């Protein structure tokens, strides 16, 4: 849990210098939230919207990671922990395994509202962190980190990476007869979200076998995503993935 000392991730930990954010940056945050939230109120999973309120995200100011973590930790043990940027895999997995979500502190500028090649605080906090308030999702994500941290086989890690991609980053769920988004890449991108909601992307029922055998393409909008019926399904899929990784059948 989060009292454990980090080793692989230690060199990447930083402090969020909240007072250094400019009014322009707060205004960009407000604009990013303002353009996504109305869409998400219609199209996001209810657990995401509940998480948004639970962690106390503000619409008009950038989030203080310490405040977010103070609200999150008592619920699920997760924190949103500032890091200097892209993490090598062992550091990333170590943080997930100890319920610390590696969170970038920089924010895109006004010229790049829609897309940044590397995650920023909008993608990381607005996109990811609300789901960490959900107990089953929270357990799944820790388990994912633990299994990956213990896996050396590159082919297995690639398949586990696809499981992460099609859930944490681009996951959708069926609720009330509709497809709703919960993956951070959909939550934090107008274009990706519209692509799914506009019916331009096929939605298959989530099945571990198909998910881990569907290669990830990062340079185009998705043509196929996978819908769970509940978050129990991804929790169970992770248990199954671990069993299969151990006996080399993933
Ligand atoms: Fe992400």
Task: Summarize the structure in short.
The chain has 250 residues and is an alpha/beta fold.
Structural overview:
The chain is of the alpha/beta class. It contains eleven helices and six strands. The chain has helices at residues 23-43, 46-54, 65-76, 89-97, 121-128, 135-149, 154-169, 184-187, 190-197, 208-212, 231-246, and strands spanning 79-83, 100-104, 172-175, 178-181, 202-205, 224-228. The strands form two sheets. Strands 4-3-6-5 form a four-stranded mixed beta sheet. Strands 1-2 form a two-stranded parallel sheet. Helix 4 crosses helix 6 (135-149). The longest helix has 21 residues, at 23-43. It is globular. The structure holds fe (ii) ion. Fe (ii) ion is lined by residues 119, 123, 128, 169, 184.
**Unique ligands:** fe (ii) ion
Q: Compute the separation of the termini in Å.
A: 27 Å
Can you tell me the CATH architecture? Orthogonal Bundle
Helix count? Answer: 11
- The whole-angstrom Rg is 17 Å
Share of helical residues: 40-55%
Total domain modules: 1
Question: What is the strand tally?
Answer: 6
List key phrases describing it.
binds fe (ii) ion, alpha/beta, 11% strand, 6 strands, globular, Phenylalanine Hydroxylase, 250 residues, four-stranded mixed beta sheet
In terms of topology, how is this protein built?
Elements: H1 23-43, H2 46-54, H3 65-76, E1 79-83, H4 89-97, E2 100-104, H5 121-128, H6 135-149, H7 154-169, E3 172-175, E4 178-181, H8 184-187, H9 190-197, E5 202-205, H10 208-212, E6 224-228, H11 231-246
Parallel strand pairs: 1-2, 3-6, 5-6
Antiparallel strand pairs: 3-4
Helix pairs in contact: 4-6, 6-11, 7-11
This protein binds fe (ii) ion (FE2).
């Amino acid at each position: 849990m989060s009292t454990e000392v980090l080793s692989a991730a230690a060199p990447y930990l930083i402090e969020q210098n909240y007072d250094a954010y400019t009014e322009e940056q707060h205004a960009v945050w407000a604009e990013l939230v303002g353009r996504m939230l109305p869409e998400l109120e219609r199209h996001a999973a209810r657990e995401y919207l509940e998480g948004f309120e639970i962690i106390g995200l503000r619409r008009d100011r950038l989030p203080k990671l310490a405040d977010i973590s103070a609200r999150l930790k008592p619920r699920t043990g997760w924190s949103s922990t500032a890091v200097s940027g892209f993490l090598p895999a062992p550091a990333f997995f170590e943080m997930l395994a100890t319920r610390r979500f590696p969170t970038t502190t920089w924010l895109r500028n006004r010229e790049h509202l829609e897309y940044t090649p590397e995650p920023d605080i909008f993608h990381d906090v607005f996109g990811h962190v609300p789901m960490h308030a959900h107990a089953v999702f929270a357990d799944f994500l820790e388990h994912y980190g633990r299994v990956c941290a213990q896996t050396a086989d590159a082919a297995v890690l690639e398949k586990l990476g696809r499981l992460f991609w099609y859930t944490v980053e681009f996951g959708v769920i069926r609720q009330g007869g509709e497809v709703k988004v919960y993956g951070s890449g959909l939550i934090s991108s107008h274009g990706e979200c519209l692509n799914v909601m506009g019916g331009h992307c096929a939605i298959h029922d989530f099945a571990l076998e198909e998910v881990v055998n569907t290669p990830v393409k990062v340079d185009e909008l998705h043509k196929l995503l996978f819908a769970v019926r509940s978050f129990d399904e991804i929790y169970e899929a992770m248990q199954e993935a671990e069993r299969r990784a151990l006996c080399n059948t993933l």
